[in-house]
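Hi all, posting the design record for the shared folder.

TITLE: backbone redesign
STEP: 1 of 1
STRUCTURE INPUT:
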C-alpha cells in the first residue's frame, strides 16, 4: 500500500471541498473494494476522504411513490428496513443477498454504485427500477449512469449523495451466485409498473444492462412463460473460470423466469 493522507470531514461541504482541492483523492465509503485495491497497489490515491461521519448521507426516506436511500446507508440497514420491505420488498431482499454479514454491515449503496463492479447486485435494481442517482452536482438517470467495466457517469470530485427508487407494482431479484464470494455470476431484477416492465441484469456483462426483449414481452404479459423462451445472445458477455458467455446467456433467461415467478407470488 502506498502512503496517503487521511481525512475525516464532519460535513458534506468539507468533504466536497477536499475532493475539489485534491484531484488524486478518493472518497472512502465502506472500503470493501477500495482498501483491498490499495493493498494490492492497484489503486494509489494521494488522499482518502472518509465519509463515515456524514449524517447527511445516511438518510432513508420511504414514500408512497418512491424510496430514497442515502449513499452511506449500509446494505444491512436496507435489508432490515420495515419501510423498504413494505414498499419495495425485492430491494430489501436484494440487499440481504449481498456478500456475508460483515460485508452487509460495512458496504454502502453509494460505494457499490460508484465502484460499479460487474458482478455487484445493486446495479441490477437501479436499472430494473429506473432509479435516479442524486449527486453533489446533479441527478443522473439509471440508464445514463453505468458506462462500462468499473466506469460510471461520475465526474472527478462528484459524489453520490442518495438514490431514489420508484415503487413498482411488484418486483423480484434472483441471482446465481458465486459460492465463495456470493457475487452474482448472473443476477436479474424484474419490475412491473403496470403499464411497463423493466429488467436489469448484472454479472453477465462488463457492466449491468437492461434486457429489452424481455421487457417488451413482460410489458405485454407479466408471466414466467413470457421470458422462458427468450434466447439471449452470448456476444460480449463475460468469460471466466466460473462461467462461459454461453452459460451466462442461458442463466439470464433462467434467472429472469425465476424472478418473474417470485414477483407474482
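Okay, here is what came back for every position:
SEQUENCE:
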Amino acid at each position: 500500500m502506498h502512503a496517503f493522507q487521511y481525512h475525516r470531514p464532519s460535513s458534506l461541504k468539507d468533504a466536497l471541498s477536499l475532493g475539489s482541492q485534491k484531484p488524486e483523492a478518493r472518497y472512502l465509503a465502506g472500503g470493501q473494494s477500495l482498501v483491498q485495491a490499495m493493498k494490492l497497489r492497484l489503486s494509489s490515491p494521494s488522499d482518502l476522504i472518509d465519509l463515515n461521519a456524514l449524517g447527511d448521507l445516511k438518510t432513508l426516506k420511504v414514500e408512497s411513490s418512491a424510496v430514497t436511500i442515502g449513499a452511506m446507508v449500509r446494505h444491512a440497514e436496507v435489508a432490515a428496513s420495515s419501510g423498504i420491505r413494505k414498499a419495495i420488498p425485492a430491494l430489501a431482499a436484494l440487499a440481504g443477498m449481498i456478500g456475508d454479514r460483515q460485508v452487509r454491515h460495512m458496504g454502502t449503496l453509494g460505494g457499490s454504485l460508484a465502484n460499479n463492479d460487474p458482478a455487484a447486485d445493486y446495479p441490477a435494481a437501479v436499472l430494473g427500477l429506473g432509479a435516479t442517482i442524486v449527486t453533489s452536482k446533479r441527478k443522473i438517470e439509471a440508464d445514463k449512469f453505468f458506462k462500462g467495466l468499473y466506469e460510471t457517469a461520475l465526474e472527478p470530485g462528484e459524489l453520490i449523495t442518495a438514490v431514489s427508487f420508484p415503487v413498482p407494482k411488484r418486483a423480484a431479484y434472483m441471482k446465481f451466485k458465486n459460492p465463495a464470494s456470493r457475487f452474482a455470476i448472473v443476477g436479474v431484477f424484474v419490475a412491473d409498473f403496470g403499464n411497463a416492465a423493466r429488467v436489469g441484469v448484472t454479472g453477465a456483462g462488463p457492466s449491468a444492462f437492461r434486457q429489452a426483449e424481455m421487457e417488451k414481452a413482460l410489458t405485454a404479459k407479466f408471466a414466467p412463460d413470457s421470458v422462458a423462451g427468450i434466447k439471449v445472445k452470448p456476444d460480449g458477455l463475460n468469460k471466466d473460470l466460473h462461467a462461459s458467455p454461453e452459460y451466462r446467456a442461458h442463466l439470464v433467461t433462467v434467472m429472469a423466469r425465476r424472478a418473474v415467478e417470485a414477483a407474482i407470488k
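COMMENT: The first helix runs from residue 12 to 21.
Let me know if anyone wants the other runs.
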